[in-house]
Design a protein that fits this description.
heterodimer; A: 268 residues; B: alpha/beta; Rossmann fold; ten-stranded mixed β-sheet; globular; binds adenosine-5'-diphosphate; binds magnesium ion
Chain lengths: 268, 267
């Protein structure tokens, strides 16, 4: 068999497996939704409105002016904060991974900040930066940079000495080695740090909007609860869940593309 | 010419020290094929890393005699092929990028560089595989990529660390003949390390036989077998048998001496 046909056969097998997997993983959510629909259909409890009403509220309340006034601002803060975290985490991590002594010296502090519950920092951010976008973005960036930073340090530090020898023996410059070898070799760990960071960023995005905010999905959801608009509150949760899935889905796609060499290698 | 003079290497880590190279000296002449053979764990990789400027020796020198340059960091005259191809290639880059990467600093013109890559791939029989990823290729093919990368670099010296140790017997024979062929066309001087006595004799103009740790050179044996060599004819010659017996005897003596020395230190 030629390499070409080996590749396509393997890919085909993987594709059909993933289609089956997708179908199977859809069963439970569908069952739950159907059960919820019928169980709540005649509900008169103010706390558990019929699913139909929640969905109606979802469409009326969220897929309207709130897209521009709340959803997009929330997502923008998430994306900007996360992007800052990636740049800072990878940049600083690559540097510290090379300078062992400094990394060792900083380790207790890094571990302390990582262990600190993110939500405990929200009041601090409000005090420091007031309300508005800046404290929220700063907080998202700060909190989610730690897993990226720590994983990058670890990844860069644990690179196979053989590939380092290759870079040195062919006289690549320090910068070329960082760019062409070290960052790639560390990328599986960096990306798994980014995955943790992304879910942290999402948590911080929502919770920072529940304290000292004037818009955003977290803000509206909390307000709905306080104003006893229960269907709006439930639909807010639904929206956050769906967006979480969506953001994670995009991340998985990017990850698959970036780490194809790694997953393929592991299979052999 | 490349001269290795009284090379010593003792690793020290965590307060413990391990003497690996005790006293290694030999020379490699222009255009020669020198093999270094010794038991596993003898310090062959250590020796090559010192020669390639990747590891500072504890004492002694490696000199590029033409320029009088003492090797203290990787020199542009030397290219390496490492033992484990799965660790020495970059799985995140395609084959052509793997081969072309070291050329970015020495060939400025993009077209010229691409040509050099293609030519190197062709010389190892891999034309048309530039767009594959290393992990899509078999082990033997991956090691040929590593050889192509070293050849494209146009070194004076090609240093190879047990390059065929992790492929099957048939592939190994193919690769041995490939390296004999390309070093002729590329006009490169080769130092190849192996623990396989047959391979050491089959490839070499001279065989440097080293002892087990702490390593010294037992003897340097001239291989007066005619070229071009052939897996069937050369290995069937009585002289081949004599030479491999000579090498094997030296290595066995080295092991016996090492065992005796060990017994003594334990007493
Ligand atoms: N960086 C290192 N630090 C400490 N000991 C090492 C290091 N590299 C190799 N060694 C030791 O040196 C000895 C010789 O290793 P090596 O040169 O790889 O031998 P060979 O290639 O002949 O099998 C081994 O016992 C090995 O454990
Ligand atoms: Mg070795």
């Amino acid at each position: 068999m030629t390499t070409e046909s080996i590749i396509t056969a393997a890919t085909r097998r993987r594709r059909s497996a993933s289609v089956n997997g997708a179908l199977i993983s859809l069963i439970l959510p569908v069952v739950i939704l159907v059960a919820w629909w019928f169980a709540s259909a005649n509900s008169v409890s103010p706390f558990f409105p019929p699913l139909q009403r929640i969905l109606q509220t979802f469409v009326d309340a969220w897929l309207s002016t709130r897209v521009a006034s709340d959803i997009l601002p929330s997502l923008a803060r998430l994306v900007i904060g996360f992007a800052i975290a990636v740049v800072a985490g990878v940049g600083l991590g690559a540097l510290l991974g090379r300078l062992r002594i400094i990394a060792v010296a900083l380790n207790p502090i890094l571990q302390f900040f990582r262990a600190l519950p993110a939500t405990a920092l929200i009041p601090v951010a409000v005090v420091l930066f007031g309300i508005g976008d800046v404290p929220k973005i700063a907080l998202i960036a700060f909190v989610s940079s730690f897993p990226i930073l720590l994983n990058t340090i670890d990844g860069v530090r644990n690179i196979d000495p053989v590939i380092e020898d290759v870079g040195r023996s062919f006289r690549l410059t320090k910068l070329q080695r960082l760019h062409w070898i070290q960052l790639h070799a560390a990328s599986p760990q960096v990306i798994s740090g980014m995955r943790v960071a992304l879910s942290l960023a999402f948590v911080v995005m929502v919770s920072s909007e529940m304290l000292g905010a004037t818009n955003g999905m977290g803000y509206v959801t909390l307000l709905a609860q306080q104003g006893f608009q229960i269907p709006l509150m439930w639909s807010g949760l639904l929206l956050l869940g769906l967006l979480g899935l969506f953001v994670n889905g995009i991340f998985v796609l990017v990850e698959r593309k970036l780490l194809r060499w790694y997953t393929q290698n592991q299979e052999d | 010419m490349l001269t290795v003079e009284n090379l010593q290497k003792t690793y020290t880590s965590g307060g413990k020290s391990l003497e690996v190279l005790r006293d290694v000296s030999f020379t490699v002449k222009e255009g020669e094929f020198v093999t270094v053979v010794g038991p596993s764990g003898a310090g062959k990789t250590t020796l090559l890393r010192c020669m390639a400027g990747l590891l500072p020796p504890t004492a002694g020198t490696v000199t590029l005699t033409n320029s009088g340059k003492v090797v203290t960091s990787p020199p542009k005259e030397i290219a390496c092929v490492f033992q484990d191809y799965s660790r020495s290639l970059m799985p995140w880059y395609k084959v052509s990028r793997n081969v072309g990467l070291p050329l970015d600093n020495i060939i400025k013109d993009k077209n010229e560089r691409r040509q050099a890559v293609e030519q190197a791939l062709q010389s190892v029989g891999l034309d048309g595989f530039g767009d594959s990823y290393p992990w899509q290729l078999s082990g033997g093919m991956q090691q040929r990529v590593a050889i192509a990368r070293a050849l494209a670099y146009r070194p004076e010296f090609l240093i190879m660390d047990e390059p065929f140790a992790s492929v099957d017997a048939q592939t190994r024979a193919d690769l041995e003949d490939l390296i004999l062929r390309v070093r002729q066309t590329a006009g490169v001087t080769v130092v190849l390390v192996t623990h396989d006595i047959d391979e050491a004799v089959y490839l070499a103009d001279r065989v440097v036989v080293v002892s087990s740790r702490p390593t010294v050179v037992m003897d340097v044996i001239d291989v007066d077998l005619p070229r071009p060599r052939s897996q069937v004819t050369t290995k069937g010659m009585p002289r081949f048998g004599e030479l491999r017996t000579q090498v094997a005897t030296l290595i066995m003596r080295a092991s016996a001496e090492a065992a005796a020395a060990q017994g003594q230190t334990q007493l």
